[in-house]
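Quick one, probably user error.
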């Protein structure tokens, strides 16, 4: 199997605080890995390091066999590493379609060097095809011309996932894609994720553990900047150390729904 991403002894210190502490991580092609853990345990910081938003204090990141530790975030996107954020990040003043197209243009490989290529009919056709396909996958075709500010939070989340898909990710990193959504919206987003995971390598951070057990084939638990447990979801969720890190040492029946 092809290894997509590997992090080796990755650390991030904020002054005296160690948010990510010598973490090792790897994911193979077509795997869907979930990362769970209490608030403040370092999950988002881990994504910020992997996606290049923050430089690590120590360690290295390898993407398809290449060391990308010093690569800027936009170049990671161009190489196929795409992420979404815990708080939806889309442009409210634009339509759904404009959001999709703008993102695709922003991350064109030739963007900075060759405007002729960027604006060529062949390239425009590719962009439109990718954006349309992504819009179809997330079920937003009927809202293509709707102003994004008029979308519900659930549809904005779907748009954000659509934007990520339009960039042809080889690895998609989703930071709490279900946060802030109603139960009905959660069903909609989970349905999209179930469909797209077949052709993608996915890492999903999620606080609502029970929602993603059926989605992921591998689960990792982060606590105080370290992965304390990993493996098949059933095994991980029955692990004593994992249960203790969620609720302390007493027996508690359920993970956060
Ligand atoms: N930019 C930052 N500056 C300082 N501290 C930060 C920063 N980002 C995160 N932290 C701290 O790092 C720890 C881990 O945060 P975070 O990665 O957001 O956790 P999680 O996503 O698991 O809730 C927290 O204590 C948080 O306050
Ligand atoms: Mg977070």
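Nope, works fine. Designed sequence:
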């Amino acid at each position: 199997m092809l290894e997509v991403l590997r992090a080796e002894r990755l650390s991030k210190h904020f002054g005296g605080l160690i948010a990510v502490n010598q973490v090792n991580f790897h994911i193979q092609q077509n795997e869907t890995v979930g990362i769970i853990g209490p608030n403040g345990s370092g999950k988002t910081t881990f994504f910020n390091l992997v996606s290049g938003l923050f430089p690590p204090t120590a360690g290295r990141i390898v993407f398809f066999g290449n060391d990308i530790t010093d690569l800027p975030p936009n170049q990671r996107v161009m190489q196929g590493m795409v992420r979404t954020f815990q708080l939806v990040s889309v442009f409210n003043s634009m339509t759904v379609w404009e959001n999709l197209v703008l993102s695709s243009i922003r991350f064109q490989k030739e963007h900075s060097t060759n405007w002729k290529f960027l604006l060529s009919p062949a390239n425009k056709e590719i962009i439109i095809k990718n954006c349309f396909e992504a819009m179809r996958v997330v079920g937003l075709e009927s809202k293509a011309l709707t102003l994004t500010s008029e979308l519900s939070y659930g549809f904005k989340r779907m748009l954000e996932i659509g934007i990520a898909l339009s960039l042809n990710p080889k690895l998609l990193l989703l930071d709490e894609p279900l946060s802030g959504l109603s139960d009905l919206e959660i069903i909609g987003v989970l349905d999209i994720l179930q469909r797209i995971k077949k052709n993608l390598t996915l890492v999903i951070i999620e606080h609502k553990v029970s929602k993603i057990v059926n989605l992921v084939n591998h689960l990792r638990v982060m606590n105080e900047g370290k992965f304390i447990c990993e493996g098949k979801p059933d095994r991980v969720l029955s692990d004593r150390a994992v249960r203790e890190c969620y609720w302390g040492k007493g027996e508690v029946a359920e993970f956060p729904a």
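Residues 1-80+169-257 form a domain with the Rossmann fold fold (CATH 3.40.50.300).
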